[in-house]
Amino acid sequence: MRRIAIIGFHVCYWMMYGLLIFLFAILSAHTIHFPLKRLLIPGAFFTLPAISSFYIFYFVLFPRFLQRKRLLLLSVIAIGVSLFCAVETLTAMSLLLGSRVQVSFTMDSAGEILAMAFIAFVNGVLALVIRGFITSYGDIRVKEELRRKNTEMELTLLRSQLHPHFLFNTLNNIDVLIEKDAARASGYLQQLSGLLRYLLYEVRAERIPIRDELQTIERYIHLQKIRTTHPESIHYTVEGETDRWMIEPMLFLPIIENAFKHAEKRAENAIRIRFQLDRNRIRFDCENRYQRKPDKAEDAAGGLGNSLIRKRLMLLYPGRHTLQVEAGPETYKTTLILTGHAN
User: How would residue 21 be classed by pLDDT, with cut points 50, 70 and 90?
Assistant: First the structure.
């Protein structure tokens, strides 16, 4: 909590306490016909021990005893501090006011000491409550800030783990084509340039229009066709309006990349990618055909990639996503559904 807010909190507390004492003093003076010019005496009776004990409890007892959970010792010291504040107040009033103190109460009365000690104790307890609230609020803010920073760092780490593999495969594809057709390779390099621009700038935003993500996917598919000889090996369709949705960047591309990594690219309908964009949800289906190998079962099913994708979805869309993975004997299908409202 900011210092100005804490100071304001203290000012409000003492204003309310002073108003309460003032009303009590006026009522007492009216009842016993006490002159208003002598309200200083009962005001000091209630105020001086309250202020002394409040800040002793606030600055000394709370950090040394309550925060360390030394409750028994805190109770004993709190009683002692309250009595000390009462005696201190009576001594100060006696020295400053002399015999005039006798107008309202007797100096040697033990009951007056106990009364002021009670006032001091109550204000001390309230000081502990207020300090505890301010400390807890500050701790919550610090923990929330740490949690937010950790989430941002974790998302950044997840994104950084997705990019290198994608770029490595793309560069290898272009490298293969350079020797065969330099003109086509130049066109693919321009596509790669657009992808790099997207990875360098767009992924830094929290949300981007889904049409930008779809354009990047189209570029990626176009680059992957370098090594694809079958004209019907890849089917890519988008249904619905692409101008309404805002999504987090690099949400679907890792799944598509995994499909291309394990697909049997020479087969017909090797990869099928479909987007359905409704007003309240996005449905994404990605299916690829592959040849399962006994020692590569986990790798074919996504392995670490799926774990990272699930973790990222949990951070970005908690309670608003469904991810289903179906690994058959010849096909592997991923279905991702995001729920919400289009912009």
Answer: confident
Confidence band for 1, pLDDT divided at 50, 70 and 90: low
Q: How many Å apart are CA 85 and CA 139, to the nearest integer? A: 31
Among 108, 124, 144, the domain boundary falls at: 144
Model confidence pTM above 0.85: no
Of the candidates 334, 227, 330, 329, the residue with the CA atom closest to the CA atom of residue 273: 334
Sign of the CA dihedral running 62, 67, 71, 76:
negative
* Positive or negative torsion for Cα 224, 226, 231, 233: negative
- What 8-state DSSP symbol labels residue 65? I
Task: Find the domain containing 266 and state its range.
Answer: 229-339
Assess whether 33 and 138 both reside in one domain.
Answer: yes
Angle at the Cα of 84 from the Cα atoms of 90 and 24, rounded to 5 degrees: 50
Question: Which candidate, 25, 56, 221, places its Cα nearest to that of 127?
Answer: 56
Give residue for tokens 């935003």. 205
